[in-house]
């Protein structure tokens, strides 16, 4: 009996990709639930927002540790530490919307639903078409850096128009990131499900907060 080596390698690659995809979505679901739990806890305890500096230090510090230990079981600990921390910082923001707008709960649910629809739609498109979106890497990297620094500037100098523009930019950029990251998993560009999970989680988190800000401007009732 003769074996086709190329076919065997191809089948092995498909199995590996499917395993990464399965593990990524399983871990992503768990981290989203955990993050939602910590956000709800922060809301119930009425915790204050830690501030921009602590948020950035905590985020980048935990992101560094997650990346450093992504090939070990310890990486899972830091994944939940990072997503739990982000949930804790989100809780006070949600409380602010609830108290600032009479329809705050509706705004949050609408942003949550919109985030879910966008994520499922874009992920489904990437999975079914299996298109390679790796060509978007450079554009997305530059776009995120520009939007990130513009966002910090909007906070420091209190420029509402710039903040609104940054939110719109992040909605588009995070949508592109979801397509790109899903494509990377499908085509073997990302083989570590911990790193894949963090990438998708951050995109979903930013997409949700950006949609919430846009909805509050155009549909918020004081």
Main attributes?
mainly alpha, 222 residues, 7 helices
What features would you describe in this structure?
- There is one protein chain.
- By secondary structure, the chain is mostly helical.
- It has one domain.
- The protein is built from seven helices and no strands.
- 29% of the residues are buried.
| Helix percentage range | over 70%
Number of helices: 7
Distance between the termini: 75 Å
Class from secondary-structure proportions: mainly alpha
Which consecutive residue ranges, at least 5 long each, have pLDDT under 50?
Answer: none
User: How many discrete structural domains?
Assistant: 1
Strand count, sense and barrel status of the largest sheet are: none
What amount of the residues lies in strands? under 5%
Give the SSE order as H and E letters: HHHHHHH
Silhouette: globular
Mean pLDDT: 90
The count of DSSP E runs of length 2 or more, i.e. the number of strands, is: 0
Radius of gyration: 19 Å
Brief rundown of the structure:
The protein is 83% helix and 0% strand. With 222 residues, the protein is mainly alpha-helical.
Question: Could you give the topology of this structure?
Answer:
Elements: H1 5-44, H2 52-68, H3 74-100, H4 104-129, H5 137-157, H6 160-186, H7 193-219
Helix pairs in contact: 1-3, 1-7, 2-3, 3-4, 3-7, 4-6, 4-7, 5-6, 6-7
